[in-house]
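Here is a typical sample entry:
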Amino acid sequence: MKTNIGVIGCGWLGFPLAVSLLDEGYVVHGTTTNSEKLEALAEAGILPFKIALSEEEILGDIAGLLNDLDVLVINVPPKLRRQPHANYVAKIKHLHTAMQKAKVPHSIFVSSISIYGNHPDDITEETTPVPITESGRQLLETERLFLNDESSANTIVRFGGLIGPKRHPVNMLSQKKGLKNGTAPVNLIHLEDCITMLKTIISESYWGEVFNGVFPYHPTKQEYYQNEAQKRGIQAPEYLASTEETPKGRVLSKNYLLKGHTYLTPIDS
């Protein structure tokens, strides 16, 4: 009997994850908020659902999506920079209630290392999160919603900055000047390693756990982005030579690495 996996949010990460899961033999349900993308999901072999989460309700056939699922991967970023007053927690609570009603036994909630805030020392999954942004605070509250749910076994994955094909932060930082924290370490992960980690959690049944997803290479921001800009032939960002920088530590993937897993895709070009 095939395992049924649902992926809420088939965007930059969710769509290639869904396709990779299909290649592994899973039955995959996928969602989009855009009617025009339903056909692309279907053509890839994904069972398509148009689902939109709001603070008031869930729009779409959420019961159909969740029916007979073994695992639900929730990849819905807060996007509070665009909507700073949005209640992300309320949106996910509606989804969580629907999951409980459908008795979904397992889920993976994709979170972010932003929940740790500014921490001067090395950060592991055992480090107490102290978020300093509204996005980080709402993500942490949402994490607790799943971790404290005794009706299902849920796992949290806190990814670092995501890079991949046609996506790299140096392209946005190029030509910028007066940037702070140039001596802070980078905490990044490639798309391919994100997908591998999520699939590994499912295949190995790592439920009820927390994972940091960050490649174990942490040069300073100034060094890393200058090198990446040079390789691309674009202007490097310029960082302030300040002694009053916010202390930031390396985020370590202690849990994943201790289980014997490795990262395969370097973050340097």
Notes: The longest strand covers residues 106-112. The chain has a mean pLDDT of 95.
